[in-house]
What we know:
Blueprint lengths: L1 H13 L19 H22 L30 H21 L8 H21 L2 H5 L1 H12 L18 H16 L4 H22 L1 H7 L2 H10 L4 E5 L9 E5 L4 H5 L5 H19 L3 H22 L3 H39 L5 H8 L4 H18 L4 H6 L23 H31 L2 H7 L1 H19 L11 H11 L1
Antiparallel strand pairs: 1-2
Helix pairs in contact: 1-14, 2-18, 2-20, 3-4, 3-6, 3-8, 4-10, 4-16, 7-12, 8-9, 12-14, 12-16, 13-14, 14-20, 16-18, 18-19, 18-20
Amino acid sequence: MKFNFLFAGLVLLCGSGASWAHTFATPYTLPVPFWMYAYGASAALVLSFVIVGLVTRDPNLTPELRFAGVGHPPLTNEKSGVLPGLGFARIASVFFLGLTIATGMLGTQNSFANFNMTFFWVIFVLGFAYLTAVFGGIYDLINPWRTLCEWIETRWPQAFQPVWANYPDALGAYPALLLYMGFIWLELFGHTTPRSLALALIAYTAINLTGARLFGLNAWFRHGEFFGVFLRLIAYMAPIAYTPQPSASSKGEVRFKLQQPFVGLLREQPGHFSMVVFILFTLSSTAYDGVHASGPWSRVFWAGIYPLIEPLVIAISAQPYMLAAKIFHQWQWLALFGSPVLYLALFLGALKLMQLTLKSTQSLNALALAFAHTLVPIAFTYHVSHYYTLLLSQGTQLVQLAMDPFGWGWNPLGLASTAVAPVFIDANIIWHTQVGVILAGHVVSVYLAHIVSLRLFGNARRAMLSQWPMLLLMVGLTAGGLWILSLPIAATSVALPAELLNKFLKTSG
């Protein structure tokens, strides 16, 4: 009996709070062996590389990729000088932030019955990211935290006069990266409840107010507010671009233009190496989320690492299984925070091979900044392939939850009892959709990387020659991404080997 309670505690301690986010919760047998998908996807990627190299050869035409550049007049009510609907959208963004916090603090702690969990994790974190890929950088226009700061400024005009007038160049986007890492930790290991999510949003609001006070609104929301940094990267892929007009005569006006999808990734370039790491973390964190709760990943620790430290664990603890569980949990955290290092090493390795192949005088840092945005489509399609089914299975509940956001039994107009059945897709359809989405992201990245190479190296032959290391990297990422998606999720993230479980049973008596 003693062991039953302790071992149950061990399982609960090590279980991941985000395992619900994965497509397959039970073992799934692929329609054909995995190696056939890997070979097929890799062959398609190589073929796309050859086609792009043969067709796209003029460095003077390819970098712009304009969509006939349709410029439109300001979308504004000239009488008031305010973008129609923008003021309402800003108010709505702050309202939903407040509602998410209020329902978490005051409402039911049943995660499936509280509005804040579905709205934040599914609608905002997932749905708004996908909306941004289609409609562009809407978030920068309605950011609720920036809107709060601007409202405060209307009452206290000096509230956000920066303590440091010049944003430190050395910081770059590292504040956003650190906050992003903390956010992913919360998602995977925070065992979030409605109340803890509300407290996290309160803390994040305080961080944004403090950051804006220290560095000024523009600098902080450009470099420190990680949702803005993340969604801005996605917005570069969109076929719509927005340009706020800064002059006094056009206050509140926003111009927009249609453009060819993905051109923003070529027009913009990271201004700091921290953005390279940020982009790679978007890749590595999604991949890590896919692998960290799988049986093979757990066995890396229990069968590979734990035997090396087992004598020390037994020597210093009367309950070695509890100490081992804590070490496993901390190893999981360390692996998450270290995951971008592996991707950075692979990325820089490919660029070093490129540098050596062409005997280029371009520095490794300059090459990393030039090619970093070509990885964004891969990161985005990883995100979509891992999580899009949640919009169908859980996002459909939003209307019902909005009728009773606190879970108090409200039923206005009788709509709260109107349930929308979750949409569950056949596993084979999900898998083939994931394969197609990941492959499409890599093909786009191959195309963008070739265009960047034409810019840097000036002719088609050198551009093609420069790209074989990046092609190898993308083939590896494609195969690795598909392999992660094919992994069965363990019943718990502990997945103790049988012999180790028997040993713990004997130790516990």
